[in-house]
Write a structure and sequence with these properties.
The structure is a single chain. Helices cover about 15% and strands about 40% of the residues. The protein is mainly beta and about 400 residues long. It folds into two domains: about 240 residues, no CATH class; about 130 residues, Immunoglobulin-like (Sandwich). The strands form five sheets. A nine-stranded antiparallel beta sheet has the order 23-22-17-16-24-21-18-15-25. A hairpin with a 2-residue loop joins strand 8 and strand 9.
Length: about 400
């Protein structure tokens, strides 16, 4: 059961907020009203990031068409982890109205593309929230209720801080590191550029170099990269390149092949389901679901000769600290038990998927690893020791 837990460990950061909305006709700008139910003609507002460095989208939709959006009355508040709020305007560079027909009548979706200038964001971890002035959305010349599903959820962003690069390089370049729980790494192969390999807990890696990149990436605060993991936007993130000659212990891998070949393959090593590990590539391949020639070639290379290149992308130094440590872990730990420390639990299962630094996580009294039922787990600490552990359950 612990193998299944480690293969899926992740968490959703819950922002508890009941359904609410912004009523431009009665509330102060940006004031959240919390009606028990949105009126039928309400306009729902959603805020999300896009793939570009400075790009974000605010979408408005309603079951009742005929509303207009004045993008000049939309603004963004930036909140740092220290709680400092900075208000600044955003630049709307496009407004794309789309009208569709859906029950019970005509519906309208209007998407406003926003650009938050790079200079408006300070280095580090922060949250962005859209704020609307009165009259931002009108129907028939009158303000309408702006509703949000579960409250206005912030878009979380981390802006890389190059001033720390030299310190990180001195600390990690050429150094052995050990993963907190399983790690998802990019593995270069001869058949396709990269596959995702999932390492086993405590695996040993050697950092070749840490280097700053430019652009943006969607990253996850935690081991997993599914819908249950906490996603955030990283601007100018770091690439951690590992020495492929120091081969990690691999528990599974996944990749997508060209459409002319076969669908995406997802494989786990046989011992993950309680079977002994085959000793030859041929025997190993017989355990996998997609024994086509390309998959055979990739599997044989990853499990026998290793990766041609091995790397991961992280937001900044705080995320490196959450994924790996230079301290030799307490090998032999396989299950979470009463009395273990935060550090020991992290070495087994990784850190939970919360947008926070390692130092903040080490002070938390409870770690939630939320998964589809019944696979969630909760670890409760008393000080720095596990006081209670609710393990993941089993399927019927």
């Amino acid at each position: 059961m612990i193998a299944l837990f480690l293969a899926l460990v992740m968490m959703v950061a819950v922002l508890p907020a009941p359904p609410g909305g912004i009523d431009p006709s009665s509330a102060a700008p940006g004031q959240l009203a919390r009606p028990t139910a949105a009126p039928p003609d309400a306009v729902f507002m959603r805020f999300a990031t896009d793939a570009s460095v400075e790009g974000y989208t605010v979408s408005f939709d309603s079951r009742t068409a005929g509303f207009t959006v004045d993008a000049t009355k939309l603004h963004v508040d930036r909140t740092s982890l220290a709680g400092v709020v900075q208000a600044h305007d955003v630049v709307a560079f496009a407004s794309l109205p789309q009208t569709t027909i859906g029950p019970p009548g005509p519906a309208q979706v209007t998407v406003v593309h926003l650009r938050v200038p790079r200079t408006a964001l300070l280095p580090g971890m922060q949250a962005l929230v859209v704020r609307s002035d009165s009259g931002a959305v009108l129907r028939g010349g009158a303000p309408v209720v702006l509703a949000t599903l579960g409250g206005m959820t912030p878009v979380h962003v981390d802006v890389g801080d190059p001033s720390n690069d030299a310190t990180l390089q001195r600390r990690f370049d050429g150094t052995n590191v050990y993963g907190y729980g399983p790690l998802a790494l990019r593995c270069g192969t001869d058949a396709i550029p990269f596959v995702t390999v999932n390492t086993r807990p405590h695996t040993t890696l050697r950092v070749a170099r840490v280097e700053r990149t430019h652009g943006s990436a969607l990253l996850y605060a935690g081991y997993d990269t599914s819908d249950y993991a906490f996603a955030f936007k990283a601007i100018d993130p770091l690439r951690v390149v590992f020495d492929p000659n120091v081969r990690p212990e691999i528990g599974g891998m996944s990749f997508s092949l060209p459409a002319a070949s076969v669908p995406a393959a997802s494989m786990s090593a046989p011992e993950e389901v309680g079977r002994p590990r085959p000793k030859t590539p041929g025997a190993l391949l017989r355990h996998f679901k997609h024994p086509d020639p390309i998959t055979q070639s990739i599997t044989r290379q990853v499990y026998t000769t290793g990766c041609r290149a091995l790397e991961t992308v992280v937001a900044d130094g705080w995320q490196i600290e959450r994924l790996m440590t230079t301290r030799v872990p307490a090998f032999g730990l396989a299950d979470i038990k009463i009395g273990q420390t935060h550090e020991q639990v992290a070495s087994i299962a990784g850190f939970p998927s919360v947008y926070a630094t390692k130092a903040e996580l080490m002070q938390m009294a409870e770690w939630h690893y939320d998964l589809p039922a019944p696979f969630s787990a909760v670890v409760t600490f008393d000080g720095d020791r596990v006081a209670r552990y609710q393990p993941p359950g089993d399927l019927p």
